[in-house]
Amino acid sequence: MDSACAGAGNQLLHVDIHIDEHEPQRGILDLLSRLRPHWKAQDIQMKTFTEGITNQLIGCYVGSLQEPGCVLVRLYGRKTELYVNRDREVEMFQVFHAHGCGPQIYCSFQNGICYEFVRGTVLDDDLLQQPSIYRLIAAEMGRIHSIQPKCGLSAEPLLWTKMSHFLTLVQSSINSSPSEQRCTKSSAALLEVPSFETLSAEMESLKRHLSQTDSPTVLCHNDLLTKNIIYNQKEGMVKFIDYEYADYNYQAFDIGNHFNEFAGVNDVNYSLYPSRELQRDWLTAYLESYKHSAGREVTVTEAEVTQLYIQVCKFSLASNFFWGLWAILQSRFSSIDFDFQRYATARLNFYFEKKEEYFGLTMN
Q1: For the chain, N or C: smaller number of CB within 10 Å?
Q2: pTM confidence score
Q3: Distance between CA 115 and CA 12 in Å, rounded?
Q4: Where are the domains of the chain?
Q5: Distance between CA atoms of 283 and 280, rounded to whole angstroms?
């Protein structure tokens, strides 16, 4: 599976309709009449999933959600096209699916996509600490990280390009009129986050430090919070969903980003950040899977685990900074009822709190 080059699939079906985010049912039925023509409209049931803080997600089915053929309809959040490359997202969907690591994508429409429902349940935050579960997650990430780019193409890490783009958007949103922002509380909120100049200097400092950290560039999910992990207890497996940020990136970023997600989303609590012991066990399971999937000798040494642990600590800083910038943007543009301002503050505070400690880590 993994030695093959990661190619995208065929041209994706595009249905030229726009679904109203406030009253989506009619538009979704129109879409399903083309995707599932054998379904009778009166038999179709819809379930809205509330885990997402970027988009709306609606499951459509006849009978049961856990039966094959169910369709997920994702409506893109307001202004998300500013910071999500939708064409790249579709390409990543196709790559993950081609390698047996993700659901099939059925079609795109003007303001969203439809794809296969992955059977199982969204993982609970507390299960992240359970060895039998976190080893499954580590092994699945190892498999994905071993997928090679398209034949002959070199992969560049997405991190700095994406972060620079976020920073530019933060600067332009500061200069925009309040009417262009979601609500006027955003202007008051500007006082609660670091200035653009501070953020800009921090990004340069991060880039300087982390470019000296020898973390390989691999295919990454880049947004592995619990709502993006589906656990199928019956089959004893996990699958990762939602590829809005998936792309080639630093190996240690993807892992460090996942470790940050132990702290949760709605009430960020960094006391839940994984202990050093848990991280080392997680990283051992990850390295075994990564090496196995890449066709290498699977023996994992203590030194290898320590080296990856240090890289992950350092790149977890970049993850906090990245999502801090993202949340500042969301606080200004998103129509979703979520306290993005508080989230940005929590992420950036932890970044500043840990920066000196993590930058100082060495193998000695």
Answers
A1: C
A2: 0.91
A3: 11
A4: 24-116, 121-172+191-360
A5: 5
Neighbours of 36 (CB within 10 A): 18
Residue 18 CA to residue 110 CA, distance in Å, equals 5
Q: Are 57 and 49 in contact (CB under 8 A)?
A: yes
List the structure tokens of 75.
Answer: 């409506």
Q: Per residue in 151-160, is it b (16+ CB within 10 Å) or e — as a string?
A: eeeebebbbb
> Which class is domain 24-116?
alpha beta
Other beta carbons within 10 angstroms of residue 208's beta carbon come to 9
In CATH, 121-172+191-360 is 3.90.230.10:
no
Instruction: Return the pLDDT at 188.
Output: 47
CB atoms within 10 A of CB 45: 12
Q: What is the mean pLDDT of each run of 10 residues along the chain (364 residues)?
A: 53 93 94 95 91 80 88 90 91 95 95 94 94 98 94 84 95 67 46 85 96 95 96 95 95 98 95 97 98 95 98 98 95 86 95 96 84
* Spatial contact of 116 and 104, defined as CB atoms under 8 Å apart: yes
Token readout for 74 is 């994702």
Q: Which of 79, 75, 85, 81 is nearest to 115 (CA)?
A: 75
Closest CA to 130 of 254, 226, 52: 226
86 Cβ neighbours under 8 A, 6+ residues apart: 76, 108
Token pair for residue 136?
């499954």
pLDDT of res. 311:
98
